[in-house]
Write a structure and sequence with these properties.
Chain lengths: 373, 259
């Protein structure tokens, strides 16, 4: 023990005098290294933003009416800054094509960020924005409107309103079950699965009683698409998604603490149960707002956070925005591919995201050297 | 004012089965206190109650004169840190980021150079600063233990509560961590409360030992030489032993199992 005494005294001194013995050069070097480490995360985020902007420009050119790549930006910019003109090009870009692009960006961002947060709060790599049964609730709501004509709203908003309201019911049940039992991730996932089966059974029952045409429209809704959206819908979705994303960014540091486990989190200063419920509420609202307008777009919320995690790590302060912008880029690319591959026919974006994303995901899993999960 | 005052503390997961039964003790001065006892006797439950992580069925825990339940979580995190046995996690962070999480109660959204300095000092003190940028999941169980301890340190607490911090460590690192904590208590007036299964390590380094016996009661508390005895080992652990003197500390040499 005697031989150990001095180095040990020194080790404790290193800690005990941490505020006095600060080596300024070393401190600055560490901060520089850390800033570079953080900057690498931002490079990925900025790269995804640039990709989203470029793909948006390209997506604006797709269609019967021919408009050039740079011209499309110019028309869009003119419309935003000056209110546009009466030209056909302005009408095509602003009224016909832009809502689709912005729907894609907002849906991709919301689902990507929601997926990252769901995986963090439930500590489960298979969690996605729909884990809590949002998709089954939304499907049931849409099925009810399309199959039986029962809706909480009329005419054009019948399906949207039903999908939104019913998609939040599973989350409400999960929160009630969590309050009665516990807020641990397993309880929440199991409650979500139970609710999902109930809604799926009810949807199946309605489909059994429906005619072929109705079943076809229910199926088309469930595949998910970002077309046929108006600016009014984009604004509603945008407000919910951006407010949600902003709140999640504020909570991101707390979400990191949650990764240490519920009891550790509490001892570090975070009430894990409360944070899990608040985050679940935000994520559910974001996903419900998107799903009710677009139908079920799977995959983005599950896989985008994993790909982002492989590149930039699991720090939620950067993972949430990275998953959001990567989600936006992937969704727009998938939608553009779906529109050109068998043009003039269109393949729904929900199908293409899986076709593009899954091989990319598999490639990254195989290539990944570091342990990510 | 006592640093920690546990008074008539009872806890049970079910109403008819008590895990802790009327535990009372106080820690008045900064010291190194080890809690020992057989498996399942409620040692970890006791420190979780002390930390406010679980709510006792009856009785109270006062930290710095105030009931632990009255503290705001962030406020308590600056006074008392809890070092559990850490294992691999789904959310993989680097060792540095994992340790920086311990700064949550002190810092804002962005990491400052002060946070970094403190994190690196804790890593140096634990001899793992070279692992700072490695992924936490790539480390061994023993290294996880040291990361967990570094994360507890960066909370800059007055009380450090540890759950078997030496359980996955080799003998050198068991000695290192125990001796480190002993010197930490002396030099920084931090109070260390540590659950341990290693009676000899506890007897060598602790100022006081709390011995628990089934069903969730305190058998005795005092200086190692007063509580680590043949009688205690016979009654609490059901083993026959010899106690030899190791420079003033009792050292247990196990002989046989009693039935």
């Amino acid at each position: 023990m005697t031989a150990e005494a001095d180095p040990l005294e020194n080790a404790v001194d290193v800690w005990a005098n941490r505020s006095k013995d600060v080596n300024r050069d070393m401190s600055e070097k560490r901060m520089d290294d850390y800033s570079k480490y953080i900057w690498r995360k931002w490079v990925f985020i900025i790269g995804c933003i640039v990709a989203t902007v470029l793909v948006s420009g390209y997506a604006l050119t797709i269609g019967d009416y021919s408009i050039g790549f740079w011209e499309s930006y110019q028309i869009l910019w003119n419309h935003i800054t000056t209110g546009g003109d009466e030209s056909i090009a302005d009408y095509v870009i602003w009224t016909l094509r832009s809502p689709r692009i912005f729907t894609g960006i907002i849906a991709g961002m919301a689902l990507g960020a929601a997926g990252a947060v769901m995986q963090s709060i439930l500590r489960n790599p298979l969690a996605d924005p729909f884990t809590t049964g949002i998709s089954s609730g939304a499907s049931f709501g849409a099925t009810l409107a399309l199959g039986m004509g029962l809706s909480l709203a009329t005419a054009s908003y019948a399906v949207v309103a039903n999908a939104f309201i019913f998609s939040l019911i599973p989350m409400a049940i999960i929160i009630i079950v969590s309050k009665l039992k516990s807020t641990n991730p397993t309880t929440m996932i199991m409650a979500g699965i139970a609710v999902m089966y109930i809604f799926n059974a009810m949807s199946t029952l309605i489909k059994l009683w429906s005619d072929e045409e109705t079943i076809s429209s229910i199926f088309a809704w469930s595949v998910g698409s970002i077309d046929s959206n108006s600016w009014a819908n984009v604004i509603i979705m945008g407000i919910v998604a951006i407010a949600g994303l902003f709140t999640l960014l504020i909570l991101s540091k707390r979400l990191n603490v949650l990764s240490t486990g519920d009891e550790s989190a509490r001892s570090i200063g975070v009430d894990a149960g409360k944070l899990r419920i608040v985050s679940l509420l935000i994520v559910s609202l974001m996903s419900a707002a998107v799903v009710s307008f677009t139908g079920l777009i799977g995959f983005v919320g599950l896989v985008c956070p994993h790909i982002a995690r492989m590149v930039i790590g699991s720090d939620n302060r950067y993972l949430i925005p990275a998953s959001a912008v990567f989600g936006a880029a992937l969704l727009l690319i998938a939608d553009s591919v779906g529109r050109i591959v068998i043009a003039p026919a269109v393949i729904q974006v929900g199908v293409i995201t899986s076709f593009i994303g899954a091989p990319l995901f598999l490639y990254l899993i195989v290539k990944q050297k570091k342990e990510v999960w | 004012m006592s640093i920690i005052e546990v008074e008539d503390l009872s806890f049970g997961y079910e109403s008819d089965r008590k895990v802790l039964d009327g535990i009372s003790f106080t820690i008045d001065d900064p010291s190194f206190v080890c809690i020992v006892g057989p498996n399942g006797v409620g040692k970890s439950t006791l420190i979780r109650c002390m930390n406010g992580l679980i709510k006792p069925t009856s009785g109270s825990v006062k930290v710095m004169g105030r009931n632990v339940e009255e503290y705001d979580l962030k406020e308590l995190a600056k006074i008392m840190s809890y070092v559990p046995v850490m294992s691999k996690d789904f959310n993989v962070l680097t060792v540095l980021d994992t340790v920086l999480i311990g700064r949550y109660a002190h810092q804002k959204w962005k990491t400052t150079s002060e946070d970094l300095d403190i994190a690196y000092k804790a890593l140096e003190a634990m001899e793992i600063d070279h692992l700072a940028m490695r992924n936490f999941n790539e480390l061994s169980a023993g290294q996880h233990q040291k990361v967990s301890l570094a994360r507890g340190l960066v909370q800059e607490p007055k009380i450090l509560v540890l759950d078997e911090p030496t359980s996955n460590l080799d003998v050198r690192h068991q000695m290192y961590v125990s001796a480190f904590l002993k010197i930490l208590v002396r030099k920084t007036e931090t109070t260390v409360v540590m659950v341990s299964h290693d009676l000899n390590l506890s007897a060598k380094f602790a100022d006081r030992i709390v011995v628990m016996e089934p069903p969730g009661k305190i058998y005795g508390m005092g200086e190692p030489k007063d509580v680590v005895t043949k009688e205690m080992l016979r009654k609490v652990y059901n083993v026959e032993s010899n106690i030899i003197d190791d420079n003033g500390s009792p050292h247990v040499v196990l002989q046989s199992v009693l039935f």
